[in-house]
């Protein structure tokens, strides 16, 4: 009798942040609804996943969901002062900083997990981030209670975390977090330590698995680490010819995970699809179709982060 094959898992996680993730690193003129409004794209992405019976974990910035959004109630960190000043100057941008209807989009089918992307999209290892870490966690916990949601997973903005923050996760009831691969170019670090070499190695890993395919096994604990495998990059214009290589790299990682009974987690931001949404959704559908092949051939399974 043949031994039973271990069942691998496919995890899709979306970092839903709209303008919160770029306001401190992008020119003000580029902060527009056209570039960053992810509501309709999120509907399209989740609808497509539903059609292939693929679950997702959607990590949302708490301020986007908060029906009691109040810019006067914020601490005076450099980033939050920037957001406050921008909204005073351009109130038309409010919907890319606060969009409570996103919650219904995520929770409507029951196939998708709501996770935390912190309340203010706080980059905890950057300037001002460490000073408000306890406040950020407290505000998300308060929002969680008010929305009567049961958030168990957290995704750290820019993948910045340390041992102190993991302890805070436990104190606030989180059971899972999306960690980083054990490769030095993926290790957690502040933004000012993201040197060109590090960025180049991460980019190269999107094309060639020179240090492995990013598959992993999960060691369950009080706070379980479910690491990211690969970022779903989008290229447009003259760089669009690179997209098929990215797609092959993703499929290779999925195939290895399915064949060996390990896990593979693909992640991206919904607003990454904004500039070329039709082609991006086509590529996503090819990934989902390949997942269906792996499910039939190897019993590859779709899971949310909290199901690992």
Q: What would you say this structure looks like, in words?
A:
- With 308 residues, the protein is of the alpha/beta class.
- The chain has a single domain (9-307), classed as TIM Barrel (Alpha-Beta Barrel), CATH 3.20.20.370.
- Helix content is 37%, strand content 11%.
- The protein contains 10 helices and 9 strands.
- The protein has helices at 33-36, 39-51, 62-65, 78-89, 102-107, 133-147, 163-171, 196-205, 243-260, 277-298; strands at 9-16, 56-60, 112-116, 153-154, 176-177, 224-225, 230-231, 263-268, 301-302.
- Strands 1, 2, 3, 7, 8 and 9 form a 6-stranded parallel β-sheet that branches. A 3-stranded parallel β-sheet has the order 4-5-6, with no helix packed on it.
- Helix 2 runs parallel beside helix 10 and helix 9 (243-260) packs parallel to helix 10.
- The chain is globular and about 55 Å long.
- The model has no long low-confidence stretch (mean pLDDT 91).
List the topology elements.
Blueprint: E1 9-16, H1 33-36, H2 39-51, E2 56-60, H3 62-65, H4 78-89, H5 102-107, E3 112-116, H6 133-147, E4 153-154, H7 163-171, E5 176-177, H8 196-205, E6 224-225, E7 230-231, H9 243-260, E8 263-268, H10 277-298, E9 301-302
Helix pairs in contact: 2-10, 9-10
